[in-house]
Amino acid sequence: MGYRVVVAGATGNVGREMLNILAERQFPIDEIAAVASSRSQGTEVELGDTGKMLKVQNIEHFDPKGWDIALFAIGSEGTKIHAPRFAAASCTVIDNSSLYRMDPDVPLIVPEVNPEAISGYTRRNIIANPNCSTAQLVVALKPLHDYAKILRVVVATYQSVSGAGKEGMDELFEQSRNIFVGDSAEAKKFTKQIAFNVIPHIDSFLDDGSTKEEWKMMVETKKILDTKIKLTATCVRVPVFVGHSEAVNIEFEREISAKKAQSLLREAPGIMLVDKREDGGYVTPVECVGDYATYVSRVREDQTVENGLSLWCVSDNLRKGAALNAVQIAELLGRRVLKKAA
């Protein structure tokens, strides 16, 4: 037997990827429903490449009673309204928004990193999916932390426009086209021109000068991996359609060589090490699109600090950073908690 699954936000970038990944990974489904806002009611979405078309239902009128799992990709405002309603109906919510991530009664899960934390889901019947930039980072940090204990992380992100949704992708395309034909490249979604440019600003600014995106990386890494880790981030939007990249500098409690780190990363779940130290011997965002793995390259020792390493980390943000991680949480939930007799 399988599960009755709801995908909320099924018409958006992440919702469509959830449907693709559920099909690709052959998640055990008895019945599936695609829901979204009233604007999308009646449209159709495909369950991966199965050929099965789902008619989108209005989430406002959807009754979650009798459904097992709901994958939410509807943003914080919609989640605030509907997640408690689904959870109260005994439908476990796996939420991709930031709303519940730092709630002490809601586990924040990356299955390769802290699967044991899922047991706390019963307090609210809600499980949080981390920020896209955090998800790939902690997957890369986990095996290194287990071996040598991380003290401090300095990370600069290079985040694709798909992290800002369809509007972000459309703006990059339109600005690029306009520049080539001599038209204006007016910024609408972003604060400055994104085509042929980089913007050191993602989400709103906080009082200390950091942005909320940078704050999320810090607090989420602490909650998922270790509260004692110190982390500082600079998050940058770049003119890439899909795929987030991160330049990561790590300081450890004890010595760890680049060779040992490569060995650990090579064997770690969810990671693909591509580190040839030659022209093209590393992974870029274009190459990671559509893949499940978090790619790590450029692993090297940092001579400026005691017990330091630097590395390059790339992942498909719509997959591991959002949809894939949510489906992996559902798989983990099914294995550990919602087992059903065959």
Shape: globular
Percent in helix: 25-40%
Strand order of the largest sheet: 5-2-1-6-7-8
Radius of gyration: 20 Å
Secondary-structure class: alpha/beta
Task: Note poorly predicted spans.
Answer: none
Alpha carbon gap, first and last residue: 5 Å
CATH class of the largest domain: Alpha Beta
Order of helix and strand elements from N to C terminus: EHEEEEEHEEHEHHEEHEHEEH
User: What amount of the residues lies in strands?
Assistant: 15-25%
Tell me the name of the CATH homologous superfamily of the largest domain: Dihydrodipicolinate Reductase, domain 2
Q: Please name the CATH topology of the largest domain.
A: Dihydrodipicolinate Reductase, domain 2
The tally of structural domains comes to 2
- Major sheet attributes: 6 strands, parallel
**Average of the residue pLDDT scores:** 96
- The CATH architecture name of the largest domain reads 2-Layer Sandwich
Tell me the number of helical segments per DSSP (H or I, 4 or more residues long). 8
Question: How many E strands?
Answer: 14
